[in-house]
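Morning F.,

Quick status update on the modeling queue. The single chain you submitted on Monday has been processed. Sequence for confirmation:
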Amino acid sequence: MDRMLRISIAAGCLALGGCGAMQTDATSTELSDTTANSGVPSAANGKSAALLSAFFGLDNGLFQVANLICNGAAGKDGMPVIFSTEIDHRTMQAGDFKVTTASGKTGTMHCVSLLPATDAGELRTVLLIGEFGNADGDPPARVEIVGNLNSIDGSLNFKGAQVAVTPLAPGPTLVMAERVSDREVDKGLGLARTKGSACPSKGVAQQIRVVWAGGVTLPKGDEPGDAERNKYKVTMAGVDGKTREITPVALANLGDGDNNHVLCLDTADQALSVSFPGGIFKDPNGDLNPATAITVAR
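Structure tokens below.
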């Protein structure tokens, strides 16, 4: 866990007036599914409830500050899981998640948390904390949703969704990109002190949110700056059908230690894809990202 992530977790605890309040709002230690099955489907209106990634971020490596998420978290495994949509945190319990190792054993869940990705539009990353296997012996291989866990709008149930686990050694990749809606009114969990920076108020025609498999910083733990902004490349389609590549005029959603960046663009043309070169960002385990690209969701 790097410096910015430690700071954001501590700030989140303070913002809610204590760790107990934070557990109620963002973290669950409940090891059974307490959400009733109300017949919500796994697919509706052309959308499916899916897991986009599960990233074995830390093997027995969570720092003492992780105890601010839930007591006893320090020294355990950490695994961010990314959902295809934002989730309703009121339906999230630790018992909704099952981790299976390569040998078929079931991992031990300790707690799950949305921290630190709690801004508007970000409630799709859940950090699993527990004992899920060992990187050098019997690593985690699959994550499955075994309880009733619904999308933020209540239209989808993720029960039954599953995804293979990215091993510990590989660095983080981009797993999703989407246009930030002009009508986005959801305020996330309202944790003001873990809120990321905003795009400039002038000169920005649209914003693209990119989601990494896990939290990313520069190798020394710092947040990205202009040099990293210029490394993001966005392929755009003009009204004439021609494509071109641009860089964001600003980079936002910084300073909160999560796995989201917002690319501030000075054109309203359609964003098709986002790419980023390898060897720039590191995850909390110290692994550098490979070259990565992702299509912008429509």
